[in-house]
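## retry 2 of 3
previous attempt timed out at serialization; input unchanged, resubmitting
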Amino acid sequence: MTTPLGWCRLLLVACLMWVSQGLVWGQATSVDLSLNAWLLRVHEASRQSVYTGTFVVSAGSNMASARIWHFCDGAQQLERVESLSGTPRSIFRRNDQVVTFFPQSKIAVAEVRESLGLFPSLLKTNASSIGDFYRLRGMGTERIAGFESDVFQLLPVDRLRYGYRVWSERKSGLIVQLQTLDLDGKVLEQAAFSELQLDANINVGKLSKLGDTEGYQVVRPDLQKTTAHDQGWALQKDVDGFKPMVCFQRRGTAGVKGGDAKGYETMQWMFSDGVATVSLFVEAYDRQRHVREGFASMGGATHTLTRRANDWWVTVVGEVPPVTLNAFAQALERKK
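## retry succeeded, writing output
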């Protein structure tokens, strides 16, 4: 963990900013695009960008920072994110190939991630129903990180999801600052570039070499696509706006002294309303590992709920209000 915010949360908010590169807006108050069109355009525009920057994520008294390099030539995307606080680590991506490097342990975790929502991003799906649950509002202009920026607000229509305030650099459309707002409109967390260079002169050859795993033990997670139905699970009732995206079965180990390890399997069922995501993790109950039920905050907007369901242990995680996590936990049922 970089700080109590956590490395994963740092990446989550940072990548909310990545997806908007290349969009050009006029006056923020004259936006005539639908919310869906705006989200899709900022997502697609990210493929046209070259930039470097330092960004900071803060929530309350907690703070984390990282350096990012992003390159695209139209056919290939390269990205590197390097932590500047906490335990040293970095992520390298070439299109859908993602490697997380842990230099102290010399371990590299290699994964394949699908392009839409490759990292958690402002646009999670291309669902046309996003506009049923959020409203887009222009808020004028402000100067952020030395750039004149248009300000937009994504307003939720109910209390099952958070809102967002977005600052996008006027000429390029890059999101230079983003705030996640709670149900009363107060800031839960903020991410902003403290330094940014657009159209940066990036040495592509040097950047590509940063994905070299020589000298590292490469670990490939045991992850297989499946369906909740095949795993014997379903929702008794849909949670408004959230649609199933993908389901995985992953294998892990619970370490035991002496080098032995007990294997266990976990189902991860992912949902999204097009902006926010929720993951349901289900595994067999283990009294040694599963000791505490209830809600917890991972810092900022991300919360978790854990509960025992007979012979199963359910963990619900998402950047949504606790009431939404509870709705998922209550709706989950065993079918076989």
